[in-house]
Automatic annotation (TrEMBL):
PROSITE patterns on file: HTH_CROC1
Occurrences of domain HTH cro/C1-type (ranges): 24-55
Gene3D superfamilies with a match to the protein in the record: lambda repressor-like DNA-binding domains
CDD domains for this protein: HTH_XRE
SMART domains: HTH_XRE
Protein name according to UniProt: HTH cro/C1-type domain-containing protein
InterPro entries hit by this protein: Cro/C1-type_HTH, Lambda_DNA-bd_dom_sf
Gene Ontology molecular-function annotations: DNA binding
Native source species: Hydrocarboniphaga effusa AP103
Length: 105
């Protein structure tokens, strides 16, 4: 079942997810690995792998990064960090949080 978040993502985001999924599929095929073998190696279901290759936004980011790593596309996260670090000013107004917040478990 699709959630509202899956249908309200901006078009550029869904387009990029589809491009990432296609790159994942192409890299897997180039390595000669079946969907079943890759899914088994990463401990995910074949359905999850198929969804990732289609660019489904419901695939967990950790799973997606694991799959990209497994097919040799592991620099993706590092590239994002470099892009952000190169385009932003350093954060200088960080303060220590005092007390317990509602999200502390």
């Amino acid at each position: 079942m699709k959630t509202k978040a899956h249908t309200t993502l901006p078009t550029p985001v869904t387009d990029e997810l589809q491009r990432v999924g296609l790159a994942l599929r192409r890299a897997r095929v180039a390595r000669g690995e079946s969907q079943a073998a890759l899914a088994d190696r990463l401990g995910v279901s074949e359905r999850t792998l198929r969804e990732a290759e289609k660019g489904d936004p419901g695939v967990a980011v950790g799973t997606l990064f694991g799959l990209l790593w497994a097919v040799g596309l592991s620099g993706t996260g590092a590239e994002l960090i470099r892009r952000v670090d190169g385009n932003t000013a350093p954060v200088t107004n960080l303060r220590a949080r005092r007390g317990k917040a509602l999200d502390d478990f």
